[in-house]
Amino acid sequence: MRLLPLAGARRVAPFAVLVTGAAVLGPLGTVPLGLLASGGGLVAPAALLLAALLAQELCTALREPAGAAVARGIDGVLRARVRAATVAMPLERLESPLVQADVRLALHGHRGRTAGAAAVAAAGEAGRLASAVLGAAVLSAHVWWLGGAALVLALAQNRRIETMLVGPGGVESLADSAGQARRRRRADYLAGVAGGPGGVAKEIRVFGLESFFVARYVAAMRAYLAPQARGRRAVVRGYGWVLGVQAAAACGTFAVLGRQAGAGWLEAGALAQCVVAALLVFAYGAGGHQMFDVAYGTEPFRAVTRLLAPVPAPPPAGHGGIDLTGVTFAYPHAAAPVLDRLDLRVRPGERLAVVGRNGAGKTTLVKLLTGLYTPRLGTATTCPAAVVFQDFVRYPLSLRDNVRLGDPSFEGTDADVLAALESAGALDLLNFLPGGLGTPLSRAFTGGRDLSGGQWQKVALARAVYAMNADPSRALIVDEPTAHLDARAEREVFERLLDGTGGRTMVLISHRFATVRRADRIVVLEGGAITEQGGHAELMAAGGRYAHWYRLQADLITRDGR
Q: Gene Ontology cellular component (predicted)?
């Protein structure tokens, strides 16, 4: 319930009044009921009883929408905090499957229940408990031991039902076990494949796989539902015992009250009060839907708490240079590190090329150079950088906005945008965009156009160049963004970047050795370590791996006529 203040006083105050009213008016209604039953007047007690009943019904009816408003307010605040935390979160942590699971829980809840719903349900459960306690007090006022005994039994019964349904080992917790989660993911995957669009739909129809995937999906769902069905049958049997005990306790309570009345120790008014009070107590023992909201909504709240936990400080920022010293990095559960005791210094203004075969660790190195990853061992000193990743983003915005997103705070003109496009070799895009720089790069918009993979890559390059031009202290890091270009086109792009960024720090990543010969220094990355480094002529003269792969790739390009 400590989350309730997040919704604001305007939402919480009415909700608190309604919860309190629904909890208190029932026990208070026993007072005019006793007067009415004992013959202490008719009009006034009846009017008071009717007013109490109507007020209680009104509070109960309005409590649900008021609670929903409170839950929305809490969830809105928590979601905003989670989104802010994920934006500022180190990439290495954000990419963790556990963190991604927490993000889904925090933003979407668990089984439709959110942290806000849990807070509201906890308040409602507190109201039910207060009503039961007041009912027990009314009972004890007439039969001193009966109220306490009934309340203890109701508390035990409520706890027993909660354990059977949502507690550890309960039927609903069974659905959240690791095995059940895997079965559900498999069933969801098969359902997505069977009804999926695009290439999946084409292959299913071409190869006649409809019945195959439907049968697999049915089998997967049966495997998922069978344990829950067995658990629910066990709960039904257990629930029968709980209700049996509840009924026996209620009958025993009413028998005691009847005996007290028969012996003349309870008047008619007191007897009526005790019967209603006993019903209030035993109603709590029967459980309520709030226990589901509290149990399921607690998990999203725990996820929020984990996501908002303090994170380590980012690597120290340098001034135009980058320095990795003794850096070792391994992904979670990996058998071996991707980079092992690596030393690399990029001097301010240096144009460095990092080459290596696929899987050599180049992309991981980029994330360390930019401070997105923190080394397991060693130190990494980074500097502000404009980066073009392999998996660059294709924003469904205008060409102008796609470029200006490199630095939205820089109030550049169209001339600055055009200069960035020219440096990236993307000026020719304007020839087929009807709206020029203002053309949306998506067919989802009127007048929009889509681009080819190579054209999108040039836009991503232009965005990075724009960012570097906006802040000259930024380094430019290009991580193989030209996968959709042939080797000659890639070399032309790199040479254009080298010509247009003189005096700036630049790191070019490529698996094509022949495209980076003009770099000031070339580093060969292999097996998570730097095996060679130097200028192009120096490395060719050394006759090592660089020279071997350079000649091999050059021969392939010549043979293919590219």
A: plasma membrane
CA distance 417 to 159: 66
**Alpha-carbon separation of residue 139 from 33, 87, 173, 387 (angstroms):** 14, 56, 37, 73
Give 254's contacts (C-beta < 8 A, 6+ positions apart).
275, 278
Using one digit for the tens of pLDDT, what is the confidence trace for 96-113?
888 888 898 899 888 788
Domain boundaries, the chain: 4-168+241-307, 322-560
Cα–Cα distance for residue pair 554/562, rounded to 1 Å:
10
Bridge partners (DSSP) of residue 113 are 110
d(CA 411, CA 470): 9
Tell which residue, 371, 373, 372, 362, has the closest CA to residue 331: 373
**Pairing mode, strands 475-479 and 385-388:** parallel
Quote the tokens at residue 39.
């013959």
Structure confidence by residue, pLDDT tens digits, 37-77: 877 677 888 888 899 999 999 999 999 999 999 999 999 99
3-class DSSP state of 170: coil
- In the chain, the amino acid numbered 131 is S
| Cα–Cα distance, 52 to 36 (Å, whole number) | 14
Buried b (16+ CB within 10 A) or exposed e, 483-512: eebebebbbebbebbbebbeebbbbbbbbb
CA angle 338, 94, 383 (to 5 degrees): 70
**Under a CB-based contact definition with an 8 Å cutoff, are residues 355 and 547 in contact?**
no
Q: Which residues pair with 525 in a beta bridge?
A: 530
Which class does domain 322-560 fall in?
Answer: alpha beta
* CATH architecture label of 4-168+241-307: Up-down Bundle (1.20)
Give the residue-averaged pLDDT of 343-359.
Answer: 88
Separation of CA 428 from chain center: 40
